[in-house]
Amino acid sequence: DGGITQSPKYLFRKEGQNVTLSCEQNLNHDAMYWYRQDPGQGLRLIYYSQIVNDFQKGDIAEGYSVSREKKESFPLTVTSAQKNPTAFYLCASSTVRGVDSPLHFGNGTRLTVT
Amino acid sequence: QKEVEQDPGPLSVPEGAIVSLNCTYSNSAFQYFMWYRQYSRKGPELLMYTYSSGNKEDGRFTAQVDKSSKYISLFIRDSQPSDSATYLCAMSAGSRNTPLVFGKGTRLSVIA
Q: Do the beta carbons of residue A87 and residue A37 sit within 8 Å?
């Protein structure tokens, strides 16, 4: 079955440590995205990539970094510079390079930093 | 004024009720409108996708867009406990580098 795989489902880290969240898709989609979801805040865009080896900052990119070395993969690193990293992180992809297309989401990674 | 406004609820209805979920927006350039359903601890899934004004029906779900009022709605007929989820509206102007704008979501509970 085609889809987006995010791993792990739950992740725990100590404050001050960098952590990388995995996102893999086998939908052959060009565009990939990372969102953060907090209670009462909705979805906030962190980074997006429309093509391999290129990516753009979203609304809340500070304290995060990404890479897009392969079409299928778009890992997100939450650095120690992110002040409030505990959140539910969602990866998504879309068929065309424009960011207005319907998104297909993974099932998220819940990150807890203590 | 926020670009997209959506009442967070929670909204609680009895099984079989008609549910109306709504979003208002301020950007008159928006022309693509979507509704996503998100179950607890899962990613959102696309429910309805409409372009410009008008209605679209899919089974028990109907999406309405009124661009003159900058108002979109999702109706759920004969609601079921399995419809209990958070519903997010999303919209875009359709230009290449403008990301989707999401509402904050409305939490719905359908009580058996």
A: yes
